[in-house]
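Reviewer 2 asked us to include a model.

Predict the structure of this chain.
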Amino acid sequence: LGVRQGRSLPRLILFGDPEKGPVARVMEDFSEFFKGRAEVIAVCHIARCTPEVLRDCDFAVVLGGDGTIISAAKALSEAEVPVVGVNLGKLGFLAEFSVSEFKQMYDDIVSGKAPVEGRMMLGCQVSEGAHEGREKFRAKAVNDVFVAAGPPFRVIELKIGVDGQQVASCVTDGLIVSTPTGSTAYNLSAGGPILDGSMEAMVITPICPHSLSFRPIVIDASSVVEISFLRINEGTTVSIDGQTSSGLAIHDVVRIARDRSSFLVVNNPVRTRWDTL
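Predicted model (structure tokens):
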């Protein structure tokens, strides 16, 4: 991937929240840097960018931490736009470039010499009842879909099925279904395994289960996970990447499967995934 044929300069879109710390300063610095090197077709917050603009650019340069990139990922995956993450936050599993590294490797990035990796995403659907009832909620996840017990913070009891077969029942504080990208996020904190980001798999990880036998499970990416409930709280929710959520009722079913779209990330060629880890 690189500059599209017929273009003398790459077309870039620059994402960031100028109200966050150094982002405004870096945006101003990059505006100078891109003169004569790129055509910047938009400088905006992801929520204000139209699909038409996204489809017309070669790369998206996202300024911030991994949370900023995750916010942008859903729209960028639909437009199949590769993301260059410039890390101005604390975590850099997706935002792999520092400001200086981005400038040093800019020519390799836009010429297509820097590796571009496709990361799988998850689709989550919440329906009323077990037999494809009314859809209540739908969303896409880069990192994870998780069920949280919520207030009044009693343990909940849920059932987990994979491809129509029951896997386990669990009394727990919640459950995480993670992508390989998200394996280093909530899944890692909950004791789940770290997966290589390029893998095609899902991880099912219980959150503080009241059990000695239920451990994290890695399943094939083509699987469909179903979560149903035997006991929940008033505030039990399903959350997507920790950014959007929906309340759950006792008869709801949460279905999680691989999404048809992938999230394209430009990797830093001088930093291995193990360096980042």
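The first helix runs from residue 23 to 33. The first strand starts at residue 11 and ends at 15. We have added this to the supplementary material.
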